[in-house]
Specification:
The complex is a heterodimer.
Chain A lengths: L10 H5 L9 H20 L1 H4 L15 H13 L2 H9 L5 H7 L4 H21 L1 H16 L6 H19 L15 H8 L3
Helix pairs in contact in A: 2-4, 2-5, 2-6, 7-8, 8-9
Chain B lengths: L1 H11 L2 H19 L5 H13 L3 H18 L1 H6 L9 H12 L3 H35 L3 H18 L4 H14 L3 E3 L4 E3 L13 H18 L16 H7 L4 H16 L4 H16 L11 H14 L4 H7 L5 H12 L6 H6 L1 H31 L5 H20 L2 H19 L5 H24 L5 H4 L1 H31 L1
Antiparallel strand pairs in B: 1-2
The chains are: A mainly alpha, B mainly alpha.
Chain lengths: ~190, ~500
């Protein structure tokens, strides 16, 4: 039986009779410690991030009470992560295993950056053109290059645009570049871009 | 009763509802059939559609994606040994060996009929349990609600028994994130740092889409291998498999009962139900040695228990407004957008909606089974779609799902942040679900605690002096104690053994 239920099934699962996904302890402790650190910073910011309320309503009603409770709960419950990480730091190869927590994240960040560009591009080029470019970029970045893949990407994008933009008439901001065209062109094209 | 049924049929007798049922069922099946794509992803895709519809068809569309996925997930699990959704892991244990023995159609039909039986039992349980729970909830005041939420929190955390510290930490962070923005009764701003885009708080839908759909897209975009093409299905065994479920009546009853109960417990759901159901089925089986080698009974136990959860997870959501899993948390957001407030009043104020929902769920199950029986061969081909192409489509659809809700760039940015965070957590085994639960339950718990303290004049013993509140608190304490006790003995036995 699996000991880790939150993972997405992959092809690797099929090769493994028990569907066990080994999570490296150091990597897990590292990621837990990062989250724990975030909670700690948030708690330290509490005095400047919240204001004091009216004293007569009692401590439980104070604006700082619930953030403090939530963060305190998380920090106490998750204190095992930094403790474990400190204990593991004596093991040989510790640095390499810590870095393993970030393995593959570079690629995710690249996709994230592409998503950011897409987000900006929607305002300037409109949903349709931006989506076509974004989808092509994703296919290229993920290694789906050449042959039929650009056409597949184009077909998928058109299907999405047809369904959402034309079919459901979901509104998107009129792209900035249409300002340079006559109003009639802008009005007509705005509905499809 | 008859009136309710007729009311339900009149509610669904609209083209929008029928279309939503149909599209939801197809989307759900496809999502289940394509390995790596999860119901959360499907719901992200369907979200913009649902927001343009009336409440019932909008919610039915999402429930279609949710319910259909568990049926469809059995297809790759049986044919190529890759679970279509994470909960179909145990389906591979007996489904795949059965298919390998040359009976893929029998295995698929048996999985469909088992899911159908479990699904129908779950709807019946929902119909009877939700009003009962709502009636009990009518007597709830703020202290009782607060303690129910404490119990739900304990249940969610204990459900992640392999990583309790991770669950507590992410729950705490989720509950903290819920405090960002405007606060009452003092009408102050918390953690906004003069940023207007933070005044509204951390939105839930972008968080769920980021954590569960887009993080998944990142994983898929990095998956270089494609699933193998399934072998020819043949035509034999389709109807034999359909009726075979009734040969295992005891297993069906046991597994559905477990599924129904587990569905009620926040955080436990399909995972807990199927593992318990499978191990009990093996223990009570006349042929336990066949389990894991193509036992039809094992397949029945797994599929019935998964589907038996699918409607009962709605019970805490409808009666108390407490989401039992991440998908229900997303559904809760949709309820709110459509101004349908879950809770005891829902059954009185929106009886038509509730009746329509019940009838729709019945029809949804029938739709899904009919579609699968008719088009299994076509659906099977989808199992071998390149994961990277799916990941790219999810990213675009995820953008539509978040951006078109409020047309705020900040929502899309939140999605991106949570997508990267979700990918990081997924990779390193830190559970993401408690974070969503924290975000949903946090504000409710804060509000109920504040109200309770106002009632009692700041005296926390109010949670002990009110019988129902004290009972929930005792349940929570007993659950934690029992868990700690069993964990201690498990460790002790392990140490002694090794």
């Amino acid at each position: 039986m699996t000991t880790h239920i939150d993972h997405a099934p992959s092809i690797a699962d099929a090769e493994n009779p028990g569907f066990e996904e080994e999570i490296e302890v150091t990597a897990s402790a590292t990621s837990g410690t990062i989250l724990w650190g975030f909670a700690l910073v948030a708690l330290l910011l509490l005095p400047i991030a919240t204001r004091e309320g009216r004293r007569d309503l009692g401590m439980f009603q104070e604006p700082w009470f619930w953030p403090m409770t939530a963060l305190g709960f998380g920090l106490i419950g998750g204190a095992m992560f930094p403790i474990l990480l400190v204990r593991l730091s004596r093991d040989p190869g510790f640095g390499r295993r810590v870095l393993a927590a970030f393995e593959g994240m570079g690629k995710s960040l690249q996709y994230g950056a592409a998503f950011l560009v897409y987000l900006v591009a929607v305002n300037y080029l409109g949903f349709t053109i931006s989506s076509i470019l974004f989808m092509q970029a994703l296919y290229l970045m993920s290694g789906l290059r050449g042959g039929r893949w650009p056409w597949v990407a184009l077909a998928v994008t058109f299907a999405i645009v047809l369904a959402f933009r034309v079919g459901l008439d979901i509104w998107f901001p009129v792209p900035v570049f249409l300002q340079f065209f006559p109003a009639s062109v802008g009005n007509f094209m705005g509905g499809y871009l | 009763m008859i009136d309710s049924i007729l009311l339900g049929f009149s509610e669904i007798a609209h083209w929008q509802v029928i279309l939503a049922l149909f599209i939801g069922a197809i989307a759900g099946i496809l999502v289940g059939a394509v390995p790596g794509m999860e119901p959360a992803g499907a719901m992200a895709i369907a979200l913009p559609f649902s927001l343009t519809m009336d409440p019932l068809p909008g919610i039915i569309l999402l429930l279609g994606c949710y319910g259909g996925a568990w049926y469809g997930g059995a297809i790759p699990a049986i044919l190529i040994r890759v679970p279509g959704t994470p909960v179909n892991v145990l389906t591979t244990y007996d489904g795949y060996p059965l298919a390998k023995k040359g009976q893929p159609m029998r295995a698929l039909s048996l999985a469909y009929s088992s899911s159908f039986v479990g699904g129908i039992i779950s709807i019946v349980a929902l119909i009877f349990l939700a009003p009962v729970m709502a009636q009990v909830a009518e007597r709830f005041g703020p202290p009782e609600y607060a303690m129910v939420m404490v119990l739900a929190t304990v249940s969610v955390i204990l459900a992640h028994h392999h990583n309790i510290p991770g669950a507590i930490l992410t729950f705490g962070i989720g509950a903290f994130l819920a405090t960002v923005g405007f606060e009452s009764p003092h009408n102050t701003l918390r953690y906004t740092f003069d940023q207007t885009w933070l005044v509204g708080g951390v939105p839930m839908v972008p968080m769920v889409i980021g954590l569960f759909a887009m993080s998944q897209a990142f994983v898929l975009l990095e998956t270089k291998t494609s699933p193998p093409a399934p072998a020819d299905l043949g035509a034999t065994g389709r109807f034999h498999g359909l009726l075979e479920v009734f040969k295992y009546r005891a297993t069906v009853i046991r597994s559905s009962a477990l599924g129904v109960v587990m569905g009620l417990l926040p955080g436990v759901g399909e995972f807990g139900a199927q593992f318990l159901s499978y191990s009990l089925a093996r223990r009570f089986s006349k042929k336990p040695e066949e389990f894991g080698k193509g036992s039809p009974e094992g397949l029945v136990a797994s599929e019935v228990s998964i589907s038996a959860c699918t409607s009962t997870v709605l019970v805490p959501l409808l009666a108390l407004g407490i989401p039992a899993d991440p998908l229900m948390a997303m559904l809760l957001a949709v309820f709110m957008i459509h101004n349908i407030i879950p809770g005891p009043q829902l059954f009185a104020e929106h009886a038509d909606f509730i009746s329509g929902l019940y009838i729709s769920l019945f029809i949804l199950n029938i739709f899904v089974v009919v579609l699968l029986l008719a088009f299994t061969k076509q659906v099977v081909r989808l199992s071998s779609i390149t994961p990277r192409a799916i990941g790219a489509a999810i990213l675009v659809l995820g953008f539509i799902g978040t951006y078109t809700q409020n047309f705020r760039v900040s929502d899309a940015l939140f999605t991106l942040v949570f997508a990267i965070l979700g990918r990081f957590m997924l990779k390193n085994g830190i559970p993401a679900f408690p974070m969503v639960v924290g975000l949903v339950l946090g504000p409710m718990l804060e509000q109920r605690l504040k109200q309770s303290m106002s009632i009692s004049g700041g005296d926390p013993t109010i949670f002990l002096t009110r019988p129902l509140a004290a009972t929930f608190l005792v349940f929570a304490i007993v659950a934690v104690t029992a868990f700690a006790w069993s964990h201690y003995y498990e460790r002790k036995n392990l140490n002694e053994a090794g």
